[in-house]
Amino acid sequence: MLKKNGIYTVTIEDIGHKGEGVGKVKGIPLFIQGGLPGDELKVEVTKLKKNYGFAKLLDIQKPSDQRVIPRCPIAEVCGGCQIMSLDYSEQLNIKTRRVRETLQRLGKIDAPVHAAMGMKEPYHYRNKAQFPVGMEGNTPVMGFFKTGTHEIVNTEHCYIQHPVNDVLTKIVKEYIGKYSVTVYDEKSRQGLLRHMVSRVSNKTGEVMVIFVINGKELPYKEELIRELKKEVKNLKTVVQNINTKNTNVIFGEKTATLYGEGYIVDQLMDLSFYISPRSFFQVNPTQTQVLYQKALDYADLKREETVFDLYCGIGSISLFLAQQAKKVYGIEIVPEAIEDAKKNGELNNLSNTEFLLGAAEDVVPKLYEKGITADVVVVDPPRKGCEETVLETMVKMDPKKIVYVSCNPSTLARDLAYLEERGYQTKEVQPVDLFPHTSHVECVALMYKRGKIVP
Q: What family does this chain come from, according to its entry (predicted)?
């Protein structure tokens, strides 16, 4: 029987969805932060549940053959890269296996799962950074939260972010000190500056900087903008976002442009995109093109289909589909994203698109009631997956294909199982590594309506 505070030796067999090592002691799975598959560890049990527990790593008694020295010196403290200490090829193997096992265990999905598609150079790939701001004594700090906490690990250089963030964080820290700008404290809910968010165009190099504040106005903003313009090459716009709520959500509802036009332009393959502060745009442009190309391959459009793109964001997948479809309806709940999507349709001269504002679970049934249905449905939902209403209406519309883009294998398994029970069959699933050195993995799944198409 395991005991809390007991000391045990465990061999790590797998990685959990948060990047923890998982190993069994006396048949009970233990989740251990910092453990990697193949490690033999000395651990102390910190918490026990009915069928599993958590333990603290005390010593690596025998390291895994796949353990490497991470490029980042703070990787094992910072919560940004949970598995940078694992050889990259093994990261891909583990992600492939997790997708396969999750689909089989939770959804009873036995379709082929291909090997995860990785990067040649899996560093500095992110085009968006979200830095919380804090204080250590009288010194401002910016970085990422220590795993499982809201304690900021000060970061001078991040190996997965764009290098411009080194310059931005230095400027912001100096600004805080020079002008005595207060920093938000989660416990007291006092202080002004909460986050600095950056977005960088992979194609043009344009830089957007967003300051999230707990108040009405950023002080000494002219001086801050002057310094940013002086030090940041290709600075395109500076934006202020107001968030006065007691929440872990970064952005509030009110956004104002302080400098520039309030957006940047990026390009994927042969299409250009306006990106505004709160719009969703995949953070890894190199792998996004791999992901989207696989979605297009699965859709296999012949310029005669009506396509629904649910959770369409700024229309990135929609516009690629529109190049090969008769008509594309994009549906998204974020107003700024829909506005960007409409602009992006015009920017790329694609008039066979219609972008609709609203929750997919509300808009899709209304379209169906009007007699508007899809031959192919593409979905790219948030981590919680699709609402059942959306899935139910998709089944009623009877599309010949469903292409499901997912950032969460568990909800993917649940939703595929729902659709399989109602006449669809999963043909194959392709994992794509959009987030190297983290435990996250994206997937694209192809489903056929049984009897409509013979695979």
A: Belongs to the class I-like SAM-binding methyltransferase superfamily. RNA M5U methyltransferase family.
